[in-house]
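Narrative summary of target 7.
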Amino acid sequence: MFTKVRETLFGNETEAGFTLVELLIVILIVGILSAVALPLYLGYTKDARLAEAKALAGSAMTSLSGCVQVKGTGGNCVV
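Modeled conformation, tokenized:
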């Protein structure tokens, strides 16, 4: 029935494009993927910052330890 109405209104041309339902489904899927991916991404960035801070602290501790060994505890060791 609908094909007859469509042919009457628009002729035998087929319309290219997406329906509203298809677009809503795609938006829903993208939203779900974003909701899952965002917390994971934030966790990874937090872990990366923590690893960088640990590396910098270890480097500073190594420098300070070397300075104390060379100058002694009374030396002016600045890192």
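The chain has a mean pLDDT of 86.
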